[in-house]
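The instructor's notes for this session suggest beginning with a concrete chain rather than abstract definitions. Hand out the sequence below and ask the class to guess, before any prediction is shown, which regions might be ordered.
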Amino acid sequence: MGNRGPAGAVYIIASAPMSRFSRRFAVLCLCAIASACGPGACLFGEQAPAQDTATGQPAARVDPSAPPARPRVVALGDSLTAGYGLLEQQAYPALLQKKVDQDGYAFEVVNAGVSGDTSAGGLRRLDWALEGNVRVLILALGANDGLRGLPIAEMKENLGAIIDRAREKNVVVILAGMEAPPNYGPEYVQSFRMAYSSLAASKRVLFVPFLLDKVAGVGTLNQGDGIHPNEQGAQIVADTLWPVVRNVLDQMAGTQ
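After discussion, reveal the predicted structure:
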């Protein structure tokens, strides 16, 4: 159906029926992801770099000849987004970046996936994820909530809070649905699925019903654990998201 304007506008899309979700589930590995950067050395005869008063670290130098930073598309998710078991360039955010570049859009796709993360964890680190010129947020959280049988109402509240806070920054949100494992019973599975569709309707955001559509349950598209997509599966995930992402970028390009 119709799309109107970029950030605070209404986006409703039609989607194909979801494929059957895999009945093989395992506990996702919780990985700690950290990075550190030591202060740069001062060259002989050069003035020591200015200190950041908040951190005590050398302040970042600004290269006046460097091109301006590109607006960002941030994929906020768990190990499915981080690319567990894959090389960085094989994860679906990197594959989306290739599509962005090939079609000539001046956007940077940022992989903000953390293995083991839940909707609550995503909400806690949202401010970090939205740093910089973020224009689009792919919200792909909740798989670990379902694997752990966490309360659906809490997950829905967390996802709703992420959507609201992103919109406060004029960020367009694309919500990607997840599925719960069948061992919690049909009522939990159905309620889990409906949490995404009802949230998309109430918040009026772009909605991809199932992130792993056409991938979940297909042995040749997943790693040995039966949960995480392999290289071919990640490509299908990127293909599933791309029409929605491209539509948003088209609208943004038309308003610039």
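Then share the key points. Residues 123 and 162 are 6 Å apart (CA to CA). Residues 72-255 form a domain with the Rossmann fold fold (CATH 3.40.50.1110).
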